[in-house]
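Hi V.,

You were right to ask for the full record rather than a summary. Here it is.
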Amino acid sequence: MFCRWASAHLFLIAMPQHVAIQGFKGSFHEVAARQYFGAAPALNFCATFGEVVAQVADGRADAALMAMENSLAGSILPNYLLLERNALTITGEIYLPIHQHLLALPGTTLADIEAVHSHPMALRQCGDYLSQYPGWQLVETEDTGLSAQLLAERQTPGVAVIAGAQAAEAFGLQILALAINDDPSNYTRFLVLERAAEAQPVASPDKASLYFYTSHAPGMLARVLTLVAGHGLNLSKLQSCPRPSQPWHYGFHADVEFATPTQLDALLAELPAVTEELRVLGTYQRGSMVFGQDETGENHRGRHAERSEAAHLVQ
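Predicted structure:
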């Protein structure tokens, strides 16, 4: 069991038994899920983010962990649309340090490489390194971990993959080049999603994700941002997304950080006057940029479990 504390009430909630993630064994989603939830839940591997959300929505999974943005490659815009269109709520986040390595079959040298396979985001994160080898063919795949698995299964000569150390260990591959991502401070932000109708309040929330849109008139977005600043909240993310069937009109995803929930309550009381639609996608504890430095995901009980213990101690 784990606990969440809200106001004067303690909520006891079962640890999720099934967590949906995009990707396969050896992927960074797997590492992030283990660091957040620990070793207990079964992971439901999904080929697409749409399938991840669908599994939570229809009850095949109790929760999901979904990547939203990378500090080098930017936002995953289709995932913001998934948040808009599904009745899920955000209950947590984790920032995972991403170290991309060049992996190959044992005995392979750099001179043997003709093609590099990996997820498009991984290829983008390693652009500077890859540009040193213009003769290599870059092949986009579904997943970093799956790329490593297929290379190990097919034993294809002349092929390397970009993936994490956990994939090299899982599939017996050799690391040809360490940490080839363009920036050593490379992080991916993941959100924890649960069914809105069943999710319980989060202990000591200090961050919220909002979705809103305003009238298509001068100064309307500025009025929203003025209210955010006026109530002392920090706007940590603002992402515009096209509105279907309304060309060149945009909705906005905003992440705001606050010291006390009363700041958020005061903001939400005033935002309806300057927006045409406003939704709270979730309130939760902000993730740490230090948490989870062990790339393999080993020796972690999971932040989910740690939050449970912290909530229990405040009784």
